[in-house]
Amino acid sequence: MQFIITLILLWLVLPSPARASYVTGAEQLKAVGASFSWPEVRSRSLKIVVEYQQHGEWKQANLGSGFLISPDGLFVTAYHVMVYCLHNQKAHSRFSETVDCSVSNPRVRYKAQNGDHEYEIQILSHLREEDSTNGKKHHTPDEIIKHRDFVIGRLKAGPQTRFSHWQLRDFEQGKISLSNPRADFELKPLLPPKKVFIVGYPREGEFKIAHGFLNLTDENHRGYFAADYKVYDARYLENAGIEPDTKWGIGVANHMSGGVVVDAFGHPVGVVVNGNQNTAGILSIENILETFFSRKRESESQPQVILTPTKTPLYLKRTPH
User: Fold this and answer.
1) Exposure of 80 by Cβ count < 10 A (0-12 exposed, 13-18 middle, 19+ buried)?
2) Is it the case that residue 7 has pLDDT exceeding 50?
3) pLDDT of res. 298
4) Quick one: 47 and 90 in the same domain?
5) Does 19 score more than 50 pLDDT?
6) Closest by alpha carbon to 66, among 215, 166, 136?
7) Residues 262 and 292 grouped into a single domain
8) DSSP character for 170?
9) pLDDT at residue 6 is higher than 70
């Protein structure tokens, strides 16, 4: 138990060099091209916190971010945000099996804050630590793409509770190779660059939105980077309707990990799992969905998400027995 608390405290005191150009309010969000509103973003976002006992007193600290993907409280966050909860599960991959992060340990309790409400947390699906982060806090771009640093969780709420959530777009199956998720790759320019908004709760706990362009990807669609590199010809940018002097790279502050990355239309592109003052590392939403969901119903009781515009349901995979 003391080992877990020590890990928490070490994580919390790590310095955050990141600084970002944030959207500061509803009017600015609209001005930079978002088709969604400030209240909509807040209602679909989560601040992941941990409560822990120190010298007999309960303390609370921000660990990261998350985002809702279904009306019954399914959410996505980064594996490394939930690493203390999953400490005893790290050698196993589990699908649609509950790990209750709010009550499993009497001295460490995870909670998710959504607006003015606070909920206990269950993790439903996760991979082994080796597949998710390999036990490391810092990763090279190569490691970011080759690891699947994400989990599916659920807020514990009454059966009548319904949550505002991001609409997931339908996608082509098979682009993510689950049989070879660590295949070698070369980063290449994303054509065209994609305008995105990164949503989360930095260390100080205030809700923020960073914005910019994703400009690098891998050929297997596992992830993207918003990096401070000029990879486009000026003429190409002009033809794409993008200013040639566009500033590349998006700064992501510590504890925005697990937050959603959405396009200008409000569709999730992925989850942010790594960043610094001028680079953001993102794992694609297709990577998450292909890993944990199936288009085939395996149980009447499985929670599901609905893809737009096809209205296609996805069902949580189950651990094979």
Assistant:
1) buried
2) no
3) 76
4) yes
5) no
6) 166
7) no
8) P
9) no
Contact 65, 47 (CB under 8 A): yes
> Do 293 and 164 share a structural domain?
yes
CA atoms within 13 A on the CB side of 2: 1
What is the distance between the alpha carbons of residues 229 and 226, in angstroms, rounded to a whole number?
9
CA-CA distance, 97 to 217, in Å (whole number)?
32
When divided into structural domains, the chain yields a total of 2
Position 2 scores a pLDDT of 42
**For residues 151-161, average pLDDT:** 94
pLDDT value at 20 more than 70: no
Among 307, 252, 254, which Cα is nearest to 285's?
Answer: 307
Domain that holds residue 301: 40-171+288-316
> Residue 229 corresponds to which amino acid?
Y
Q: Is the pTM higher than 0.85? A: yes
Give me the amino acid identity at 320: P
Q: Mention every residue, 6+ apart, whose C-beta is less than 8 A from residue 10.
A: none
In a domain, 243, yes or no: yes
320: three-class secondary structure by DSSP: coil
Q: Which residue has the tokens 């003052």?
A: 277
Structure confidence at residue 276 as a pLDDT band (50, 70, 90): confident
The percent of residues above 70 in pLDDT, for the chain, comes to: 92
Same domain for 87 and 150?
yes
Name 61's Cβ contacts closer than 8 Å, sequence gap at least 6.
8, 12, 49, 50, 52
* One-letter amino acid for residue 198 of the chain: I
**String of b and e for 15-33 (b: at least 16 CB within 10 Å)?**
ebebebebbeeeeebeeee
* Six token digits for residue 54: 């120190």
For residues 145 and 117, is the Cβ–Cβ distance under 8 A? no
Confidence at 14, pLDDT banded by 50, 70, 90: very low
Compute CA 41 distance to the chain's CA centroid, rounded to the nearest angstrom: 14
State whether residue 102 is helix, strand or coil. coil
